[in-house]
Amino acid sequence: MAKLYSIIGVDGSGKDYWLQECFRRLPEGSGFFPLPSTQYHQSPYCAAPGLSKLFHKLGKQADLTGDAALKAMSLFLKMMLFPVEYRHLQQRYKATTIISARHPAIDTVAYSRLFLRDIPLGRPAEEDHLLRARRLLEEAEWLQLEGFLQGVKAHGQGGSLEALIIETGRKELAAQLEAYAAFFGMPFPDKLLFLETRIGQAEQNLAARNDAVPEVHEKAEYLLALQSELQNCIGVLRSIAPQVEVKEILPTLGQESREDILAFLTE
Fold first, then answer.
1. Which domains occur in the chain, in start order?
2. What is the pTM of this model?
3. Where are the alpha helices (DSSP H) in the chain?
4. Which of these, 12, 72, 76, 90, has the minimum number of CB atoms within 10 Å of its CB?
């Protein structure tokens, strides 16, 4: 099995930037491959570019309509593609080390705790927020999404994804991390880099993007809460998976910080 090095941090912390910088340093044929979650389709090695673009579009449509619950579900769908891409890099390209932006178990726990607390996910309990995607997507896109969800059910997840998120959210933090690692079929990373950025800097980075519509959770109070949730996850991960090598760093473009980050991820 390939080694997995994951970069985590709040939106605007620089995950994609540092992922790209790694592969400017690494020589071709090194056995290292990038896994740019959640925009997998930006990689030339992507296994499912159509689904990646579809889930990205769904998230953007949720942002346009201010639908925070649907946004949460779109993020979960994107995380479900992570193990598909992870296996593809090993099977098709014989990757020996995969460097990812995000980790599905850690990010899902952090984001879901935030969303479950701050948006009406599951209220009313019988509502399936994903059904609202039908009016935001083309018919062919909706059928593609339905096909993907049917495939999930065929592999043993019979209930709704929302019910899974709500049920898992009632567990202790350690149990949540283990439950999502099992659900995604993903190991915890061999190395974990946490970009503990200043929230003001993250906001500036987000504002500098070319996105016409900001994501519904890209607000200072959400970013602060998300950073706290990620820190909590790391604290628990140290106890349940002590083999994970964790580095927490305030990212800067200074030479010392730069070398520290790149050495950790490429050696």
1. 3-266 (3.40.50.300)
2. 0.92
3. 15-25, 49-65, 68-93, 104-118, 139-154, 161-169, 173-184, 199-207, 220-240, 255-266
4. 90
